[in-house]
Amino acid sequence: MVGRAQPDRKQLPLVLLRLLCLLPTGLPVRSVDYTRGTDNITVRQGDTAILRCYIEDRSSKVAWLNRSGIIFAGTDKWSLDPRVELERQTPLEYSLRIQKVDVYDEGSYTCSVQTQHQPKTSQVYLIVQVPPKISNISSDITVNEGSNVTLVCMANGRPEPVITWRHLTPTGKEFEGEEEYLEILGITREQSGKYECKAANEVSSADVKQVRVIVNYPPTITESKSNEAATGRQVSLKCEASAVPTPDFEWYREDTRINSANGLEIKSTGTESSLTVANVTEEHYGNYTCVAVNKLGVTNASLYLYRPGTGRVDNGSMSLAVPLWLLAASLLCLLSKC
């Protein structure tokens, strides 16, 4: 708000005292020219506003006022605000310049002119626009599949910013409506990823921020590849699973868990695991089970190592042949970090 300092009335020139008599409440009390109406001027926060006012002759007595009181009376400055000055590019101009405009400057300003005939006023309403700014947005979160999720994005600006949400996927889905809150009921693994909040108004470019949503879900075997090999050869069985968090893998032959030893090597990287037999013997042919487990669940797939020419090599299949106690043991092992 443009402030003011009131000097001692005894020190004011006689002309200024007469002017103040016309302005006991900040506006002339008689013979006011209301035909001009109120002009609006719109300025962006931080810019300079010039409120125009012109007088009929140099003998006119003038003053600038706002809702708080007198800013200028003639050339005498009553405001303590250093941003406020007179703009007088011509002898008959009596405009007000406000630098680095802020929201508290918004409001009605009155230029009061005492001519030889009657007092007149010219009113200007200053509108201050503020670029959009996101003030608060949800932090990155991790939830389990099926949970309900609420994302929050709050923004300031004048006019009030319009808020929109978009899921940053290749399709770039933009959610309907203009809401500070984005609610996702029963979130799925496909709904994980980054969500973009955009706050926009016509003042300047939109403000954009992102929040990441990680969705945990139990493992699913996405690929299991059986293989064939002659005795004396090296061969690998491969298994791939989708899961968040990243799954741990275990390999079984019948009911026995396999470790990397005696010519067998297990390698697991991310969502893939392989069992390599360095030197195939007759004892190595048969059924193997790949088990993928994380804190949310466990799953398995059967793979086969065949003799060449049997014609039975395939891409493996999901199987529940592993005893339930083994699956439970795998999950318990993960949770206890055995």
UniProtKB/TrEMBL annotation:
Keywords per UniProt: Cell adhesion, Cell membrane, Disulfide bond, Glycoprotein, GPI-anchor, Immunoglobulin domain, Lipoprotein, Membrane, Repeat, Signal
This protein's GO CC annotations: plasma membrane; side of membrane
SUPFAM superfamilies according to UniProt: Immunoglobulin
A biological process term (GO) from this entry: cell adhesion
Signal sequence coordinates: 1-28
Membrane topology term: Lipid-anchor; GPI-anchor
Superkingdom, natural source: Eukaryota
Localisation per UniProt entry: Cell membrane
InterPro entries in alphabetical order: Ig-like_dom, Ig-like_dom_sf, Ig-like_fold, Ig_I-set, Ig_sub, Ig_sub2, IgLON_domain
UniProt main location, coarse: membrane
Residues spanning the membrane: none
Domain (Ig-like): residue spans on this chain: 24-122, 132-209, 219-306
Family: Belongs to the immunoglobulin superfamily. IgLON family.
Name of protein: Limbic system-associated membrane protein
Species assigned in the record: Alligator mississippiensis (American alligator)
Upper lineage: Eukaryota, Metazoa, Chordata, Craniata, Vertebrata
